[in-house]
């Protein structure tokens, strides 16, 4: 769903039609191509496959009289496990893919076909998770998964080997580097780390398969554990000098720019887009009245028949608004992020995993709208999902603020003109969802209708946010002046925090 | 699923990490942003919503003993109509969206929120089509659709008005132009043409609703009909001189670059990606064996239980390979296309509409694999879908060849080095699907298994294609020399057609 676009110009003098850049070399390198569209397509595939497994969760039929508390525990737990495992493993595969194509920047037909083969196996992984979740006692599911992962690793290793055999496909920095072998070793190490663990898991699945699950968990968290250990070691005993200098070259290339910001955005867009569009499927399949019923019961008055589905439409629009606005917040945030560190990428993954849960929230609130005993629980689940999706977005910003010189645009750094406004934008959804959650505890009359209307009203809050931020800053200022603090301090505050511009 | 990426460099000296361009203006224009990511997200949403309505078609349960011929006619026809209408209308909406954001190149928060509101209504359109298809005799469905379309048009008009009220958001060419009012008038005309027709359709729906359907059809084909009439008029009575000069400025801006190639690619990627990933959903929901059955019937031997689903897995991989390779052909084609004319865009839409039908092909061939009476019909439907998807790709190329100076890269023009190879690439799928179709007529033993194995073998044909093209060119050459034609002609042929490069 994406294509190479010309880089942001940031100037008013935008050319009306960007001239297409020549993408091919002539002569002997004639079959190489720029890799943007391949990467965009891969991002689309990976983000959809990561998210789409929420559908079996959302479509689990829960009997309206059944207590939601139990049914969530019994029916949904395995399916949610499949969804989360798929999401996390696909994210790991995506990270390896990003790394791989940071090294190989040009492609040809062979690489394109190898990449498609890789994608085919990755899209098959959810099935192996379904087997694991349905038959937790039979090791065949995890064996199948491990085999797929090993084959994916081998294909990616072939891609690396092919790339280093045709060095004109490589990143310029590696191409001119004297120790290409070191880079090759390093990238193979990053790519094959997971598959080697999976190979062990496949072997263990024959005689002691709980060990396989441990190894599987290790695949997901290994990169972050390694980082944590290195970080702790550096904090406690200080960095090793000789090792540091040895790894300097690798450092500048891999670790300083851990994830390509463009691909993080592309992957996130995919998740938000698929979540926003999955909702209409349910509406179209479940909420079109039966034509026979309309004839007999409503005497061909379709509007009357449709009015029964009113709560579902409300739920649909409310869910779309929530998804759309969370994308909007993500978009605003990443406009100002200049570099996505590995930890920010992890937080983004967690946020997206909860975004992927929004179809479940829609399903619950629209199914239990009719004063069923589960109505309050359904709203609470929705609030929790929205809260975690938005609080992880907030956490990305907080993390970025810790290294604001490298990661943030000057305008939103502490003291920047947009700082307070960005803070308000990111804090809005956590506050609203938390507020709604506590309202469900306090008010016994709280209903899904009120909840959905709350969701639909939020965009107006966003539109008024700039004004609200200004007013609250003015109030803060006047309170400060009432307490008669020194003028110097006041002036400092003013220059630091007030967003001096308006929407116009 | 996409994000702004740095434009293709086409040089070996690719910078390792593209420096993020500053996307914001300081000072009074502080709240404006580049629109790339908004457009990428909109493309993702629109392409998914265009394609996703194939799912209700594919999930229609057909009784295995029922004759497919009848059931296709009765059960599927309304759903296929919904799918095609959705696809075409969403494409029209997408075209208007492309035009709109060729005029407005920078966005701010208000425009982003307005655009999301627009997207929300567009994603709701499939529901109105479901109503129309289920209740063809009740005009409420078309009234609802028309109302949505009018509201979408109004929101887009507000976006235009907002853009022209804040001219720094506009395209540079319009910004410096002296008759901005003319441009405003022109873009409003393009955007409101559809909604005005829909408004009429809404009025007609109260007293004579067949007229509404006629107007609806007009919305889809009006731009192309207008073009055709102008083209015919120019051919027969010659272009009007004064009108031509009056429209010159508009011409250079709107008609010379009818659709942004990047957005055509982005929209196509979305369709291919969603089709490739929808398949796994079916596999995960239908082909995980029941745990009780495995215990009783297979004594916990999961592999035996799974072997029953063998044909489904084969069908899955075959369908993924077909989708992936059709994307690969599309990708190869658009690498060499420098400009996408309006007619090429239309052909691309038709191709994508059939690509969207591939999940149906998968469903049919995997459901009727077990020697059912419908097996041959299922294969034939699959062949027809694949054939049309690929023949429209081929037609894009043929159309491009007619104006090859403007639309094609020199390498693939007639006589270019890659011409023959591109021809072979594009002709492969039409030939294979046509061949398979005729095989089903000739051989009584042709089965889905053979069909799927054929599909899986095709990538190897692609890999060997360069060699095959070379061999066939050599054979052509030797045949020509056998017939002892003049050496001069021979030499010409040689320079014209032989692809002089190899994969290495």
From TrEMBL, chains A, B:
It catalyses: H(+)(in) = H(+)(out); K(+)(in) = K(+)(out). One of its GO terms (molecular function) is proton channel activity. GO terms for biological process: lysosomal lumen pH elevation. It is a multi-pass membrane protein. The chain crosses the membrane at residues 38-60, 80-98, 110-129, 141-165, 196-221, 313-336, 343-362, 378-402, 423-443, 449-469. PANTHER family: ENDOSOMAL/LYSOSOMAL POTASSIUM CHANNEL TMEM175 (PTHR31462), ENDOSOMAL_LYSOSOMAL PROTON CHANNEL TMEM175 (PTHR31462:SF5). Belongs to the TMEM175 family. The keyword Ion transport applies. It is found in: Membrane. Residues 1-28 are annotated as: Disordered. This is Endosomal/lysosomal proton channel TMEM175. InterPro entries: TMEM175-like (IPR010617). One of its GO terms (cellular component) is endosome membrane. Keywords: Ion channel, Ion transport, Membrane, Potassium, Potassium channel, Potassium transport, Transmembrane, Transmembrane helix, Transport.
